[in-house]
Structures are given as C-alpha cells and as structure tokens.
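User: What would this chain look like folded?
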Amino acid sequence: MIDLTPLEVRRKKGDFRGALRGYHRALVDDFLDLVAERMEQLVKENLTLAERAKRLDEQLSEFRERERALTEALVSAQELREEAKRQAAKAAELSRREAEAEAARIRAGAFDAIQQEEETLRRIRARRAQLIQGYRSFLERELAELSVIEETLELRSVKPGQGGRKPGAVAVQAPAAQPSESEVEALLSKLDEEA
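Assistant: Here's the prediction, encoded as structure tokens.
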C-alpha cells in the first residue's frame, strides 16, 4: 500500500497528461481535492484516536498500577492482621502465664502464712498448757501448805473444854479468806477443761 499524504494528492493535479478521450480535468481535480480533504479529516481523526488510545493506555497502566498497589496493600494488611493476631495471642499467653505464676506465688505465700500461724498457735497452746500446769502445781502446793497450816493450827489450837493454850504453843492466826478445798478443786477442773 502506498503511503499518501493529502499534500501529495494535491500535487498530483498537474502530473496527469492530457489525453484525447481522457477524463475531464476539472472533475478529476475536484475529486482529488475531495480525496485530499477526506484524507486530511482521516489523518486528523487518526491522530485524535491515536492520542486518545495513548491516553487510555496510560490510564489503563495507572489503573493496573493502582490495582497492583491495592493488591499489595491488601496482602500487607492481611499479613499485618495475622501478625497482630499472633502478637495478641502471645501477649495473652504471656499474661496468662504471669497471672498463673502470681497466683502460685500468692498461694505459696498464703500457705507459708498459714504454716506460720499454725506454728504460732501450737506454741501458744503449748505455752498455755505449760502455764496451766504451772498454775495447777502452784495451787496444789498452796493447797498442800494450807493443809499443813490447818493441821498445825488444829494441833496447836485450844481444844474445847481445856482452858487455854498448851504450854509452849504459839498462837497462829489462820489466813483470812482462804479458798476452800472445793473451790480449789473447781478451779483446777475448770483449768483442765480449758486446756
């Protein structure tokens, strides 16, 4: 195919030789002008369409680039979401382990405190039993002394019908308001119940 321009078509007007029974020169020239004008229109349309096609190709490239960027962003966002999930799971596991360790520490501390309190209670009970035993021994000694004093007083006291004191007898006063033997026994049994 010959590549013709509108200018070349217009220049062809003078190139045709006259012939005897040839085409009418004015009609041929008019037709060549019409062809040249139409070619000019076609060339302009072709240039416009080529420019439009170029713009559309550029837009298509932009859209493809945007699509690629969006796809990468979507993939990146999914990866970030998965990473965030993994990090959250790790943090939750770490928090759970720390809470379990703290709970174990608190339980151990409470167990130690209970053991110490129980040991303190055992010592207090032992001390109480020791004090009660000591008080019981003290009361029994006092009771024994009171019995001895009472017997001594009975031996030295004046018997009814005898008019006075025995020779060499010393007047001893009985202790005032001494508890009776039954009161001492009641007190000792009360101490036994508390022990």
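Residues 40 and 130 are 131 Å apart (CA to CA). If you want, I can go into more detail on any region.
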